[in-house]
Amino acid sequence: MTLDLDRLQLERCAFFLDVDGTLIDIAASPQEVVIPPDLVQLLHQLQNRTQGALALVSGRSVDDLRQLLPHLDVIIAGEHGAEIWRPGETPQNLGAAPIPHELTEALEKITHDFDGVVLERKPRGRAIHFRAIPTQEYAVRDAVALAVKPFAQRFEVVPGKMVAEVRTIGIDKGQAIAKLMQDPTFKGRLPVFAGDDVTDEAGFLIVRAHGGAVIRVGGAPRADLDRHFETPAELRGWLSRCVTERAPA
Ligand SMILES: [Mg+2]
């Protein structure tokens, strides 16, 4: 059964929002994204209306997101849930293992074999971006799988949109959301999670387990979604109506 998202009481909800492809449009590279001018204000309004029960749940590292949104003061679950940052604190590692040097070297080699592949060294993982050479997608994915194979006891490859993420086994957005839902700020609230990609599915599962609502941006509409938006702008428009039209009586 799906929830009526237009009757949500924000005071009883907790929002978990993916960033790239969900709140903002995906760009040719992660550095080239454009931040809508009213995004930070919108998120702070949502944070106020939920008494702080708002977290960004992104594949980007906490450091990366804080540089991207320097004036934003909300909780961040970074690197697909490998770390959680609360404003004023240092990021907390949720179980990510250090990436072995040999693994990074093997991934580095792929950037030499394929022109246009970029290796991103995140604090707790690695991302291999191949948006520049979409026709080579499967060859690059195969090469990444091969490079990670010797380290398969601790690390896994997670597919994303034109990216292959290498991360510690057991880390996903779902476990970060589950962890945050134990926080007094979030506990007992109805979780609402918006995402756009394969890596968000683990979050969808946890949110459903908590009786919450699942929103997907882009892709095809699905029966298991509570709401589907075509674009990040549509999601922002809906959030904006949530915070302005449903002010407390
Ligand atoms: Mg995304």
From TrEMBL:
Gene3D superfamilies: HAD superfamily/HAD-like, Trehalose-6-phosphate phosphatase related protein, domain 2. It comes from the Bacteria. Its EC number is 3.1.3.12. Pathway: Glycan biosynthesis; trehalose biosynthesis. Keywords: Hydrolase, Magnesium, Metal-binding. Pfam families: Trehalose_PPase. Its cofactor is Mg(2+). It catalyses: alpha,alpha-trehalose 6-phosphate + H2O = alpha,alpha-trehalose + phosphate. One of its GO terms (molecular function) is trehalose-phosphatase activity. Removes the phosphate from trehalose 6-phosphate to produce free trehalose. Belongs to the trehalose phosphatase family. This is Trehalose 6-phosphate phosphatase. It comes from Lacibacterium aquatile. The lineage of its organism: Bacteria, Pseudomonadati, Pseudomonadota, Alphaproteobacteria, Rhodospirillales.
